[in-house]
Amino acid sequence: MTNFDLYNPTNYIFGKGQIAKLSELIPKNSKILLAYGGGSIFKNGIYNQVKSALSGFEIVEFGGIEPNPRYETLMKAVEIIRNEKITFILAVGGGSVIDGVKFISGAVNFEGDAVEILKKRVLFKDVSKVIPFGTVLTLPATGSEMNSGAVVTIEATQEKLTLGGSALFPKFSICDPTVVASLPKRQLENGVVDAFTHVMEQYLTYPHDALLQDRFAESILQTLIEIGPDVVKNPSDYKLASNFMWCATMALNGLIQKGVPSDWATHMIGHELTALYEIDHARTLAIIGPNLYRVLFETKKEKLAQYGERVWNVEGNSIEEKAEKAIRKTVDFLHVMGMETKLSNYTSDYEKSADFIVNRFEERGWKAMGEKQNITLEKVREIVEMSY
Ligand code: NZQ
Ligand code: ZN
């Protein structure tokens, strides 16, 4: 097992009715920016719950944070915070609103052009320099409610870039599984597949000594396989919704990544497909993931075989046979979860993507990715072209 530091200061508050605790969690006398997305919170009652829990606080509202939040939109909130002397931000939404708030939190006191936060992947480490924030999660998927990373799109240049740092953990996150009931089918499917792929990125590498981490990862995968198809059909079933929400948080709150190698190339390539075609994040992962496993078969086959045996109960006479069966099982599961696994299912303009992505990665100097740093630009091209 490799050395690690495990730091996660987010106060995670889980369960029915927990939104009512907001007033105890936000410092008294705070002036709050209440940040949200396109308005789903008005239809499902979450806005009313938040407002009644915050009676007595001074609140400025900022709505309209898009899915795949835009730098240009977020900068408007940065201005409001500076002008209105806001002292606390409350993100009410899914990964996009929470990620947007992480960017806003860091950008308010950032010296220089805030676009550099994204272009130079600035790490925020000093909590005294960021605006504190909490979250009310409305969509289990990203784990953003309990991690310090975020992804923001620059509209002007069609770039989807990451930011983060230890100062950008939420102070608290309220995770009430009853919010799952109002999610559209598409978002439920996305949430399960995003969480599933987060585990795969941190697990599907090569055999190592971190035995417990493998078992954690496999248990999250198994739970998502068990509940995923059902939660899409019955999102108001509390047992399914609560397990879904906890799995999504555990998939990317840092725990399963400790002491092990990780990949993340499926995400890096997937972000480009969202930037280019506005395909939902999870759906880009379903397009790329299986083809990445195929192209990196020699690197990943031992772990694929372990995953096949332990998670899918596959049998076979060789590592290769079990590994191939594991990929097939994964693709079948993605289909059951409502994913299309070919880029041409989403756009007829797919042929430009390989050149575009390879050029972008070259410009950024991303020439060796993956757990063994052996995902070269040639391999990226092969993965993308295989995904057409
Ligand atoms: O905007 P509103 O009106 O709220 O509607 C949203 C949005 O249209 C809707 N929604 C959310 N909660 C709802 C609801 N509709 C009905 N009932 C509810 N309870 O769902 C739509 C999608 O929301 P979004 O926040 O975009 O989805 P998700 O949580 O999947 O977040 C995706 C974003 O997170 C990034 C992705 O790249 C993408 O930009 N990621 C963030 C990560 C992180 N911070 O660690 C890791 C991930 O890998 C991912 O990259
Ligand atoms: Zn993801």
TrEMBL record:
The keyword Oxidoreductase applies. InterPro entries: ADH_Fe/GldA, ADH_Fe_C, ADH_Fe_CS, BDH-like. The keyword Lipid biosynthesis does not apply. GO terms for molecular function: alcohol dehydrogenase (NADP+) activity; butanol dehydrogenase (NAD+) activity; metal ion binding; methylglyoxal reductase (NADPH) (acetol producing) activity. It comes from the Bacteria. It holds the Pfam family Fe-ADH. One of its GO terms (cellular component) is cytosol. Residues 191-386 form the Fe-containing alcohol dehydrogenase-like C-terminal domain. Residues 9-177 form the Alcohol dehydrogenase iron-type/glycerol dehydrogenase GldA domain. Transmembrane segments: none annotated. Keywords: Oxidoreductase. Coiled coil: none annotated. Belongs to the iron-containing alcohol dehydrogenase family. This is NADH-dependent alcohol dehydrogenase. It comes from Flavobacterium orientale.
